[in-house]
UniProtKB/TrEMBL annotation:
EC number(s) on file: 3.2.1.131
Oligomer status and interactors: Homodimer.
Limits of the Glycosyl hydrolase family 67 C-terminal domain: 439-661
All residue ranges annotated as the Glycosyl hydrolase family 67 catalytic domain in the record: 122-437
Keyword Signal tagged: yes
Protein name: Xylan alpha-1,2-glucuronidase
Keywords, ordered alphabetically: Carbohydrate metabolism, Glycosidase, Hydrolase, Polysaccharide degradation, Signal, Xylan degradation
Listed InterPro entries: A-glucoronidase_C_sf (IPR037054), GH (IPR017853), Glyco_hydro_67_aGlcAse (IPR011395), Glyco_hydro_67_aGlcAse_N (IPR005154), Glyco_hydro_67_C (IPR011099), Glyco_hydro_67_cat (IPR011100), Hex-like_dom2 (IPR029018)
GO CC annotation terms, alphabetical: extracellular region
Active site (catalytic residues): 279, 353, 381
Reaction equations catalysed: Hydrolysis of (1->2)-alpha-D-(4-O-methyl)glucuronosyl links in the main chain of hardwood xylans
Molecular functions (GO terms): alpha-glucuronidase activity; xylan alpha-1,2-glucuronosidase activity
Length: 667
């Protein structure tokens, strides 16, 4: 339950030093709820780490942590501490002589972030001597998206019921909301969409707004703004208008009044997230209007209050089934320049749907006149739900570091996101009311790493894994090395045993758990796994080059050339962009068929390695968590074998190639 905020006692000598150096917490100036939260966290954290609860005097000569802003800097320090470059949310941690440590910031929220950063520094083995660290977030909006329904089910959630206990809101505020806020603030998340993008109109009625407002009140001191997913047809469905046409004056008026009403109860409301004309959701196209018409209508309603619209680009339709991967670009690119300045288009990391591996979404960098926000999935809809260990840091990093070649070389996804006038990143939350929050102990790391990369999109997944392992499991170097090793190998293992070589969407239909490459009889072509792998006696893979769907040309020229060419396509994306014959030779020296077998086997073997590494940590980790992880790894290994055997049996059958010896046919 404590997540990475465990604050376990430090080793005895370090503990003694910290007792001296942090005997007092001094926080001059008005004690706002945010400043109070910072002080409380330091008291809690140092109390745990040093096993001595600090005092909170008005001032202290030495042995103190001082939380200061330019206007609360004590007289003797005036002119001596620079706050330059910290911005509104950044912080500086600075050791002064005489056992004084400063947390300096321009705002209370900067002080809260600085307090968490100082505690993280101590938790991961850092000391207070010679400290001078400055940091500030590179993106304005660092958001979680909850796919939580009013009945407390969570779409694609594997961690129990929604943490939002709507039935008891607004009168009862679960203590979890505060711990949720602390955990998010500790990594710098500053926005949260409370409800599912498949939204219910009722969320915008007064009694639900009141519930959202109560949550917002709890989150506010932690710098977290509340947003809501809005159902596009709400005014019509709630009986207020005869249509939901975004150009209809009555509809526009309803939304404007709705925004006024929301801001009257939630003055810092963030805005609306909208899934429109996607998977059956209503939208402006129902009235012959464009995504821009729809987004701008909501943007106009929010504008006077400073709110924004996050308009999702996740669209694909049954009427154009040539290549689902092309549809978002085809629909949105022509609208570039038409969106209001308080709209951002929220684009999934890849063109299909949160697969274990996809190329980047072609819309990154393709809409220079429009703010684009990246959407990642933290919950593991396509990566084995909560039982499979898959650390997503390397996947996020892979996407963020990919060069889009838009506007020249070196324009990585991270760089483009950071340069947007309305900059942001969103992660579909993996949080629920399970005791461990995320469905498994290791899935907490995905929440953590999303937050850390949202703060600093050019960060390293490996560094973050080490940090998380130290805070969550143990400060022992060997334990950290081993756990980090497991984490860093885990996502590629999943790619290998589920969808290697650029394959995608082979999961069981609907639930997306387990293999089903044979399914090919569903109503919509792009729901069928067979649509994606296209395996038959001749070969396997989706031709997205000029001889096929030509999706490759949606990328900037260097990428289009790289991906479109069989010789230069990165091997991990081969079958995403190309159709290959089973016996074609690959640079690895293996044929396509042998390479496929190799990857499936390698994935299974990697899980075996994870199991053995974990088994070796038995006495180094507490028994309860040790057992939980062991059990899940055993499930993962069985299911990796299931994936391998089922997929290889199927591909062997369609290709007429021999099944590798030892492969079990599924019953
Ligand atoms: O990943 C798919 C999911 C849907 C989800 C949709 C979306 C919220 O299978 O459950 O709906 O994407 O992102 O809108």
């Amino acid at each position: 339950y404590d997540l990475w905020l465990r604050y376990q006692p430090l080793a005895a000598p370090v503990q003694a030093e910290l007792r001296q150096a942090a005997a007092h917490i001094v926080a001059p100036g008005a004690r706002t709820p945010t400043l109070q939260a910072a002080v409380d966290e330091l008291v809690r954290g140092i109390g745990g780490l040093a096993r001595q609860v600090p005092a909170i005097p008005e001032s202290a000569e030495s042995g103190a942590i001082l939380l200061v802003k330019p206007d609360t800097l004590p007289g003797n320090l005036k002119g001596k501490v620079s706050f330059d470059g910290l911005g509104q949310e950044g912080y500086r941690l600075l050791s002064l002589g005489g056992a004084q440590t400063l947390i300096a910031a321009n705002s209370d929220i900067g002080l809260l972030y600085g307090s968490f950063a100082l505690l993280r520094h101590l938790q991961t083995g850092g000391g207070l001597q010679g400290l001078d660290i400055s940091d500030s977030p590179r993106l304005q909006r660092r958001m979680l998206n909850h796919w939580d329904n009013p009945d407390r089910t969570v779409e694609r959630g594997y961690a129990g019921q929604s943490i939002w206990d709507w039935w008891k809101l607004p009168d009862h505020l679960d203590a979890r909301y505060t711990d949720y806020a602390r955990a998010n603030a500790s990594v710098g998340i500053n926005g949260t969409v409370l409800n599912n993008v498949n939204a219910k109109a009722e969320m915008l009625t007064p009694r639900w707004i009141e519930k959202a407002a109560a949550v917002a009140d709890v989150l506010r001191p932690y710098g977290i703004r509340v947003y809501l997913s809005a159902r596009f047809s709400a005014p019509f469905e709630l009986g207020a208008t005869a249509t939901a046409d975004p150009l209809d004056p009555a509809v526009r008026d309803w939304w404007a009044k709705k925004a006024d009403e929301i801001y009257a109860t939630i003055p810092d409301f963030g805005g609306f997230l909208v899934k429109a004309n996607s998977e059956g959701q209503p939208g402006p196209q129902d009235y012959g209007r464009s995504h821009a018409d729809g987004a701008n209508m909501l943007a106009a309603a929010l504008k006077p209050h400073g709110g924004i619209v996050l308009w999702r680009a996740f669209v694909y339709s049954e009427t154009d089934a040539t290549d689902r991967a092309k549809q978002a670009y085809a629909e949105f690119k022509p609208l570039d320049g038409q969106f209001a300045d308080n709209v951002t288009v929220q684009v999934k990391n890849g063109p299909i749907d949160f697969q274990p591996r996809e190329p980047i979404h072609p819309l990154f960098g393709a809409m220079p006149e429009t703010s684009v926000t990246a959407e990642f999935q933290i919950t593991k809809e396509y990566l084995g739900f909560a039982t499979h260990l898959a650390y997503l840091g390397p996947m996020y990093e892979e996407v963020l570091k990919t060069d889009t070649f838009r506007g020249g070389e070196g324009q990585t996804v991270a760089k483009l996101l950071m340069a947007e006038p309305l900059s942001g990143i969103a992660g579909v939350a993996n949080i629920g009311s399970d005791r461990n929050w995320s469905g498994s102990h290791f899935d907490q790391a995905n929440w953590y790493t999303f937050g850390r990369l949202a703060w600093s999109p050019e960060g390293s997944a490996a560094d973050i894994a080490r940090e998380w392992a130290a805070m969550t499991f143990s400060r022992d170097r060997e334990v950290i090395d081993k756990i980090t090793g497991m984490m860093m190998a885990s996502r590629e293992a999943v790619v290998d045993y589920m969808t290697p070589m650029g394959l995608a969407h082979l999961m069981g239909t609907g639930h997306h758990y387990g293999p089903a490459p044979w399914v090919n009889d569903l109503a919509r072509p792009e729901w069928n796994p067979a649509y994606y792998h296209r395996a038959d006696a001749g070969g396997i893979g989706f031709d997205r080059t000029a001889t096929g769907s030509n999706a490759a040309v949606q990328y900037a020229a260097p990428h289009a050339a790289l991906y479109g060419n069989r010789q230069t396509v990165p091997p991990e994306l081969l079958l995403w962009f190309h159709r290959a014959g089973w016996d074609e030779a690959l640079p690895s020296g293996r044929t396509v068929w042998a390479e496929l077998v190799y990857h499936y086997d390698r994935g299974v073997a990697a899980v075996g390695t994870m199991r053995r590494t974990w088994a070796g940590l038995e006495v180094r980790v507490d028994p309860a968590r040790f057992r939980d992880v062991s059990d899940f790894l055993a499930i993962q290994e069985q299911e990796a074998i299931w994936w391998r055997d089922a997929c290889l049996a199927y591909f062997a059958a369609v290709s007429g190639r021999a099944l590798p010896p030892g492969t079990r046919l599924p019953a």
